[in-house]
Amino acid sequence: MLNSIKANHLQFESQKIGMMYFRVAIILFGAQLLMGLIAAIQFLYPSFLFELFDFSVARMVHINALVVWMLYAMIGSVYYMIPDETGREVIGIGIAKLAFWVLTLAVTIVVLVYIFVQVGPGKESTIWFINEGREYLEAPRWADIGIVVVVLIFYYNVFATYLKGQRTGIMTVMVANLFALAGLYLAGMFFTDNISMDQYWWWWVIHLWVEATWEVFVGTLAAYALIKIIGAKREIVEMWLWIEVLMLFGSGILGLGHHYFWIGTPEYWWEIGALFSALEPVPLVAMFVHVLYDWGKEQGAVHAEGGAHAINNGPAMAWIVTNAFGNFLGAGIWGFFHTLPQVNIYTHGTQFTSAHGHLSFFGAYATILIGMMYLVTQGAYGVKHMKATKLFKWAITLIVLGLMGMTVALTIAGYEQVLVERAELGATWNAFFTAQNLHWYVQAQGWRLAMGVVTFVGFVFLVLDLLTIGKVSKEAEV
Ligand code: HEM
Ligand code: HEM
Ligand SMILES: [Fe+2]
Q: Tens digit of pLDDT for each residue in 192-249?
């Protein structure tokens, strides 16, 4: 019986392309975690893989794979929801498939080059063929240009389909926001010898992605998913979405100033950055309230009617609720901690930043994208009510525990750096090494590694679950 149940319930080619993107996304997610583990081991045992695999390369692949798997899952989500929202097939199916393969081939080549060419001179050709040296966006220029072409194809598909189909509020926000998101990538593409200028533009991509356009993007995903999973009212989720868009852009754009405190930009950024970035948690609270409010309201309505099955996809809903909490904690709280220049002068570039980076990327993005994976799996198997499996429970528990554990460990390491390296010893080069070797710091790094292993085990459960939950749920229904 189980063998005859297959993931072939998707009616639209667009949704099948969405699935292709999700498959690559989860593989890259796995690669990201493995690289993180290698880098975490090297923190404790610097001789690990010495001269075979450099820490800088492990770290680079770790964070680039992070960005790329998230972009894959985002594109996958868009292709998946387009037919639902616009009521029609995507315009250019053939070219969309071609773009997928071109992008995937390019990503594979880029990663192989990173791994095989670990050290060498920094010449003009390095930027073109090996890596651009910009944290998170290290792809060499040839790949950069390829990415722009692939994204143009993707954007054409989304936009043209939107124009021809029905235009929901969710799609309107999606189309406008994707334009900004894709356009910002260009700011990270040109090279200048001046490090201040380089950083100035680089932050346009990094900050204006994660604190503005990506946040709006997950807002549209949450709106769409809440309609699908709990039957939330479209007018209500769309109203929230517009409010969030307004607030996110309101604080997020000038909030950019919190990266301009110490890079050689004028001092007025201290005030601008402090004020606007301190306001950034406000929309995150709104998003949090939005999800919980909709959920509570729908639950109440169903209970009043005496009905069951208020949630037709338990695992996806659990990940979306985790997203509401995670976004608020990782970005809102851990971000707010160090956003004032008076604090940031001590915490800048410590493990505290890393704690925030982990919890925010995980809480705000990984969670909801995993939720989308469950939604897509439900669609692919044509399951009416997807219930939580044991594997799912293990996966979400271990992954959340692992990430929280890593965050706490890194926060402690950062605290020690602030006190010893910065405040007491005056932030000299020697102070850095003294702080790195104190046992509080080393212990914290040990805990981070242990919690990284917990995360990885959770990831293995997640993959196993995604591979089987569709069949299991479908079988329970027939
Ligand atoms: C989901 C949203 C967010 C993500 C994914 C995110 C991620 C990150 C990452 C990865 C870094 C380190 C960048 C580097 O390598 O230099 C960083 C830095 C920073 N983030 Fe966020 N962030 C988010 C939201 C926020 C918010 C809302 C605030 C403030 C309220 C904030 C405040 C900061 C500050 C002040 C820094 C600079 C840290 C330093 O000086 O070392 N972030 N963020
Ligand atoms: C197996 C679990 C993981 C381990 C062991 C791990 C380990 C590491 C290590 C050792 C670094 C380099 C830190 C440094 O240079 O000081 C790093 C950086 C980073 N990792 Fe992870 N990581 C893991 C999972 C994740 C996940 C799930 C995410 C996000 C979804 C993530 C996001 C990041 C980010 C954004 C940075 C750059 C932080 C910064 O520069 O501030 N990692 N990770
Ligand atoms: Fe920022």
A: 889 999 999 999 999 999 999 999 999 999 999 999 999 888 998 999 899 999 999 9
Rounded Cα–Cα distance for residues 297 and 92 (Å): 39
Nearest partner of 90 among 21, 164, 174, judged by Cα:
164
**Residues 201 and 190 sit within 8 Å (Cβ to Cβ):** yes
If one residue of 70, 211, 244 were mutated to test the ligand 1 pocket, choosing by the most ligand atoms within 8 A of its CB, it would be: 211
Cα distances (Å, whole numbers) of residue 188 to 116, 133, 144, 196, 260: 24, 11, 9, 13, 16
The pTM (predicted TM-score) of the whole model is: 0.96
Instruction: Provide the residue type at 461 as one letter.
Output: F
Q: Judge contact between 378 and 386, C-beta under 8 A.
A: yes
Which ligand sits nearest to residue 336's alpha carbon? 1
Ligand 1 pocket list (CB less than 6 A): 135, 210-211, 258-259, 277, 280-281, 331-332, 335-336, 338-339, 344, 348-349, 353, 356-357, 360-361, 364
Pair 360, 335: CB distance under 8 Å: yes
Beta bridge pairs of residue 386: 313
3-state secondary structure of 45: coil
Distance (Å) of CA 234 to CA 163, 164, 269, 308: 20, 21, 40, 21
